[in-house]
Structures are given as C-alpha cells and as structure tokens.
C-alpha cells in the first residue's frame, strides 16, 4: 500500500510581472508571502514505518527556502518569469534530485487566493 506524505513551508519574496491586465501593480516590484507544500509518495519502509524521514525533507526544503526567502524572484537563475506555474516547477526541479519520491508541489498565496499545483 502506498502512502502520500507532505510538508508545508512558506517564504516571503518580491517580484515583477509583465502582464496584460493589472499592469500597473504587476510591473512594480511588489511582494507576497508564498505558501508551498511538497508531496512524496511511496511504500513505507518496514523497519521505520516511514516513506521518508520528514527531517530529511525539511533539510532539503531549508536549502531551497534560503534561495527564495526575502529575494527578488526575477533574479533567481532557472526560474523564468516569476509566475506561480514557474515557481511550482522550479521548486519541483530543485527538490527532486534529493527527494526522488517527490510527486507533487503546490504553491499558493493566501492574500490573493490563487494557487498552482504540478505533479508527475
């Protein structure tokens, strides 16, 4: 039987966005609190009872969070335009090598009510 576990984290970051609507606010540097949740799926290890130790998941997240928290997302190499879609895919690509059981990433902003989720 497979289990899905998850870990949430947040970071504060600024960005600009070139859009055709809400252009004035989007083109100015502005910030958000981003919430993210990573999902890992697999079989429980019969010895530990865990898919993966969540301490290992948190350790991988902490490294990535340090690259995003209080940074200008426009300047993050490999992110592209700082949309929710690109941010989800970026987080997935950055975490997957250290967390091969990673199956999904969700990013949302409570303040404006929008979200994105990517999955394999």
How would you describe what is shown here?
- The protein is of the alpha+beta class.
- The chain has one domain (2-119): Tetrahydropterin Synthase, Chain A (2-Layer Sandwich).
- It has helices spanning 23-27, 54-68, 84-95; strands at 2-15, 30-43, 102-109, 114-119.
- The chain has a 4-stranded antiparallel β-sheet.
- A hairpin with a 4-residue loop joins strand 3 and strand 4.
- The longest helix is centred in the middle third of the chain and has 15 residues, at 54-68.
- The model has no long low-confidence stretch (mean pLDDT 93).
Characterize the largest beta sheet: strand count, sense, and whether it forms a barrel. 4 strands, antiparallel
Helix content: 25-40%
CATH superfamily: 6-pyruvoyl tetrahydropterin synthase/QueD
CATH class call = Alpha Beta
Q: What is the arithmetic mean of pLDDT?
A: 93
Name the structural class.
Answer: alpha+beta
Number of strands: 4
In percent terms, what proportion of residues is strand?
35-45%
Looking at the overall shape, the CATH architecture is: 2-Layer Sandwich
Which regions are unreliable across 5 or more consecutive residues at pLDDT < 50?
none
Counting DSSP H or I runs of 4 or more residues, the number of helices is 3
Give the end-to-end Cα distance, rounded to a whole number of Å.
19 Å
The neighbouring-strand order within the major sheet is: 1-2-3-4
